[in-house]
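Input.
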Amino acid sequence: MTVNFDTRSVESDSATEYYISATPGQKAPLQDQAKQIFSGIHDILRSKEAHILQERVFSTQSAVETLCRARSGAYGDLDDGVAPAFLVADEGLSGPIAGVQVHAVNCAGKPEAISLDGNLCGRILRVPGRAYLVLSGISDQQGRQATEQAEAMMEKVGAALRQYGADFLSVPRTWMWLKDILSWYDDFNRVRTGFFKEWGLIGAGTRQSMPASTGIGLGPADGGHCAMDLMAVLEPTHCTQYLQVTGKQHCAFEYGSAFSRAARSVMPAGDAVFVSGTASIDADGTTTHVGDAAGQIDATIEAVRAVLSEMQADEKDLVHVIAYCKTTEVEKVFEASRKALSWPWITVICDICRPELLFEIEATAMPR
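Output.
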């Protein structure tokens, strides 16, 4: 077997959630790895009688077509027509495929595929007393400039939320996939902050209700400047707890990034803690351990642990984790830390939001 599968599950009376991380285990032909990844995910979902809620594929651009064919061939009727978010990374130590993440659920109801502008792009899940909207790979390339595409993307997501009787106050978690992030991250932050102020998430006299988020240097495979995933809780309303300050890190909004350090909200099988993209940054918002990959890795892991503790979660509760490494040299340094921690790692090679940042972690935990 040339692929590793890590499956974590959480069960309640009304649902069981499955978090699958599939990564290449050793060098092998791309086509073989792709077939084994999606055939393996298919077998896990079939055995658990589970349906996909959200899915992401991390690979080089040249691998995307092969992965699409392998997924289509393996999934059969498990494919409801909603494509995963295909995200373009640089090649890492494992080759052109970094990994695949799947969040799936087994419950009385089945996730219902939904469309925007005629394109299937997400799902709604309803369980007793709870309802969720999940969107994947939302983008809009009508504008030629990156900021124009970001504005259109945010408007499209806002319209989708309103369509289902929600707004951004219903969103505990977003993922912002930003091609060439270092060339326009400040501009993106201005766009996002403007929308969040307009939607009442931040502002004078307003409780800050910014989602947990990742903003990372991965572009969508369709060639656009940006794309967005999100998880929204439609029912119950006002059920999300936001964390702005933790450990050695203060509120990210103080240095221009509109996101919370973490958010805790109600999921189908229990509470989930969404840990935002976290890097080696101190209380003043300054990068620490510049030029020191090992130092940044250790500081980042310490910061993630502080967030988990603050949100009443533990390392054993982690169900999805991504380590973003700037280069394969950083990935080599990270190997020792990765092997020492039994976290469900996927390692992706890409730019972080500052030139001097070498490493970042995002995580999801479900406290038992």
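The longest strand covers residues 97-107.
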